[in-house]
Design goal:
four-stranded parallel β-sheet; 21% strand; GTP-bd_M
Length: 428
């Protein structure tokens, strides 16, 4: 075995173009992934193939070229912009005498670097263990056999079998702990549903500006940076929406082309916030030339996590990077907002986003004028707690003249305290 990969190392990048669109990867995006992982890129070895080579993934000549590049640049890791089989990784490592990391392992490593919460670390570890479990043979080829010799012959467990068993036990333990976290999340969702508080979830391709928009809307201090997977751990914050009231805004992990299935499975509890939201804010980097492909990729992941049926509002972000684009709301034939053009970084068009949220989430609103006598101050205080008072004045007799505006259900819940009394205070 060679030295294990560590962030900060110097790498040879390998990128192969395939005619099949499903197998094709983006080199620019791969370079951003490498930069996000804190790795220095020495050079890129590229080529074209119709199908992957069974032994080296690349052809034997290209494999020799990679080996020469490793010696020339004194690299200590080879990064492939593709998913490799365990045998392909083993063969390339033996030829190049250098550690090989494929695209899936690189993404898992970035997630491991960014995980901050206990839940996030557990989810990343589970995904890594699933990935490593098929690659144990590479590290333990000298321990495949059972122990032999006097007193050691007979049935026994090989080192490889021992490691696999320990991996399975660790994965079972992590799943149980994640199940507890999921139950806690379910309790939180049930509480919000009872209080009829809608949830709005931010989704989108990685580095589309979701966390910047989240910070702009909620005045939170979530880490935001111009790099892939800056956000890993989900964050929930309360926001106030006109004619809707309180709502929960969720910032989630960004999606990427060919997101590893192990990650999708591991982050199932986190992605449930997306699946059970009332509305998805699909944030798009409108200045990115690959925006159409990125939108399609996000839709594929949403379908994979069964969230493709949730209503969406497209947020065209980073309009400050384009010329002659003004903030606006695009509507469908029925007049319902379907797209909002804004810049989260500059704070342009945020008011239009809230307007669109009001229209998409707005419930049936009731408006009443109340005349509350001076000795019913508690009733006035209860209305203030509901944050529903639009105007307040006093007449000559000291009566409090209130104009209230709130959703029908909240009004019905309020008048249950003493319906006859409250109805007597309503001015016709």
């Amino acid at each position: 075995m060679f030295d294990r990969y560590q962030a900060g190392e110097q790498a040879i990048l390998v990128h192969i173009d395939f005619p099949d669109e499903n197998a094709r990867e983006d080199l620019q995006e791969f370079e951003m992934l490498v930069d996000s992982a804190g790795i220095k890129s020495l050079t890129v070895v590229s080529g074209k193939r119709n199908t992957p080579h069974s032994k080296y993934f690349v052809g034997s000549g290209k494999a020799e070229e990679i080996a020469d590049a490793v010696k020339l640049y004194d690299a200590n890791v080879i990064l492939f912009n593709h998913s490799l089989s365990p045998s392909q990784e083993k063969n390339i490592e033996a030829l190049c005498e250098c550690r090989v990391v494929d695209r899936t392992t690189l993404i898992l490593d970035i997630f491991a670097q960014r995980a901050r919460t206990h839940e996030g670390k557990l989810q990343v570890e589970l995904a890594q263990l699933r990935h490593i479990s098929t690659r144990l043979i590479r590290g333990w080829t000298h321990l495949e056999r059972q122990k032999g010799g006097i007193g050691l012959r007979g049935p026994g467990e090989t080192q490889l079998e021992t490691d696999r068993r320990l991996l399975r036990e660790r994965m079972i333990s992590i799943r149980k702990r994640l199940e507890k976290v999921e139950k806690q999340r379910q309790q939180g969702r049930r509480a919000r549903n009872r209080a009829e508080i809608p949830t709005v979830s931010l989704v989108g391709y990685t580095n589309a500006g979701k966390s910047t928009l989240f910070n702009r809307i909620t005045e939170a201090d979530v880490y935001a940076a111009d790099q892939l997977f800056a956000t890993l751990d989900p964050t929930l914050r309360k926001i106030e929406i006109a004619d809707v009231g309180r709502a929960i805004l969720a910032d989630t992990v960004g999606f990427i082309r060919h997101l590893p299935h192990d990650l999708v499975a591991a982050f199932k509890a986190t992605l449930t916030e997306t699946r059970e939201a009332e509305l998805l804010l699909h944030v798009v980097d409108i200045a990115d030339e690959r925006r159409s492909k990125n939108i399609d990729q996000v839709q594929e992941v949403l379908q994979e996590i069964e969230a493709d049926k949730v209503p969406q509002l497209l947020v065209c972000n980073k309009i400050d990077c384009l010329e002659d684009i003004e903030p606006r709301i695009d509507r469908d034939e029925a007049g319902l907002p379907i797209r909002v053009w804004l810049s989260a970084q500059q704070g342009i068009g945020i008011d239009l986003l809230f307007q669109a949220l009001t229209e998409r989430l707005g419930k049936q609103i009731v408006k009443h004028s109340l005349c509350i006598p001076p000795n019913y101050g508690k009733l006035r205080g209860a209305l203030y707690q509901l944050n529903c008072i639009a105007d307040e004045q006093y007449d000559e007799q000291g009566n409090c003249l209130l104009k209230v505006k709130l959703p029908v259900r909240e009004w019905q819940r309020f008048i249950k305290q003493d319906e006859a009394l409250i109805q007597g205070f309503i001015e016709s």
